[in-house]
Specification:
Number of strands: 2
Protein name: Tellurite resistance protein TerC
Strand order of the largest sheet: 1-2
Number of helices: 12
Keywords: Membrane, Transmembrane, Transmembrane helix
InterPro entries: Integral_membrane_TerC, Integral_membrane_TerC_rswitch
Radius of gyration: 20 Å
Membrane topology: Multi-pass membrane protein
Strand content: under 5%
Subcellular location: Membrane
Number of domains: 1
Order of helices and strands: HHHHHHEEHHHHHH
């Protein structure tokens, strides 16, 4: 429990520094700043693999799955890359939400900050629930596997991008239970209008981002659980990837059209981990195989996006 407490305290420190020091004043996050912060978060995440090795070699942390230090590091890095890669689709949806509600660029970081904070809480609960299910019911891994294959199929068809936040069920329900205004009052989530408190577009965008992240977690958490059921590795790799999502959003949201083949990378990753779950009781590939498949799929998507010209550009 001490290790968990220290890790959570570290996350709180990171978040406090983020909003209270480095982003105290609202400002537009430009590409250069987003690139620097993305590099910082990726460095922190990969450096944490050294902590994972130390924890599992020293015996300080509980090791319910009996992992060796080397296996623990490989599983952590693989889980981190899975979450990071699946976050790319999350970036697309966040961009659509901000555009739909006309959220000014200067306030987008603040909305994402509170969205990430909520995501950490919800994902912690979902991870604990998912680990408990796999530990108690072996057959649930087949359910997760089929679900991931279905998600990969839907992503291949492209149905998940037909999304209009203002027509969503969540937006309609918010309008029913709380007054909504189209007025943006600085970075405030609520404003007083005609004697009544009303939610601003920033708050509506925050709620929809929060709930869509939960939907994305239904893909990413089973995917990581296909790699390992160790709760600390699943949680730490997931959360460190989420912390870097804000800077990643500002870095790649402006380049979404360039990375048009990334979705195929995600299809391969989801299909691979889905099949790995379905055959988990029969086939046990080395950890480096999973890491290689995920890395090659991501790299292939990026290179294809950069070097294969779009038909519209050719014409």
């Amino acid at each position: 429990m001490l290790v968990w407490g220290l890790f959570l305290a570290l996350i709180v420190v990171f978040l406090a520094l983020d909003l209270g020091v480095f982003n105290k004043e609202d400002h537009v996050i430009k590409t250069k700043e987003a690139s620097i912060w993305t590099a910082v978060w990726v460095t922190v995440a990969f450096s944490f693999s050294g902590v994972i090795y130390w924890l599992f070699s020293s015996g300080i942390i509980e090791n319910p799955t009996g992992l060796t230090p080397n296996d623990a590091v490989l599983k952590y890095i693989t889980g981190y890359l899975i979450e990071l890669s699946l976050s790319i689709d999350n970036v697309f949806v966040i961009a659509v939400i901000f555009s739909s509600f006309k959220i000014p660029a200067i306030y987008q970081h603040r909305v994402l900050f509170w969205g990430i904070l909520g995501a950490i809480i919800f994902r912690a609960l979902m991870i604990l629930f998912g680990v408990a299910l796999i530990t108690r019911f072996d057959w649930i891994i087949y359910v997760f596997g089929v679900f991931l294959l279905y998600t990969a199929f839907k992503m291949l068809k492209g149905d998940e991008h037909d999304f209009d936040p203002k027509k969503s069920f969540v937006f309609r329900q918010i309008k029913k239970v709380y007054p909504i205004t189209s007025q943006i009052n600085g970075h405030d989530f609520f404003v007083k209008k005609m004697g009544l408190n009303a939610a601003t577009p920033l708050f509506v965008a925050l709620v929809i981002i929060e709930l869509t992240d939960i939907l994305f977690a239904l893909d990413s958490i089973p995917a990581i659980l296909a790699i390992t059921a160790d709760p600390f590795i699943v949680f730490s790799s997931n959360i460190l990837a989420i912390l870097g999502l804000r800077s990643m959003y500002f870095l790649i949201s402006r380049m979404l059209q360039k990375f048009r083949y990334i979705n195929y990378s995600l299809v391969i990753i989801l299909a691979f981990v889905g099949l790995k779950m379905l055959f988990s009781h029969y086939i046990h590939p080395p950890e480096w195989v999973s890491l290689t498949v995920i890395s090659v799929a991501l790299l292939g998507g990026v290179l294809a996006s950069l070097y294969i010209k779009d038909k519209n550009e050719i014409e």
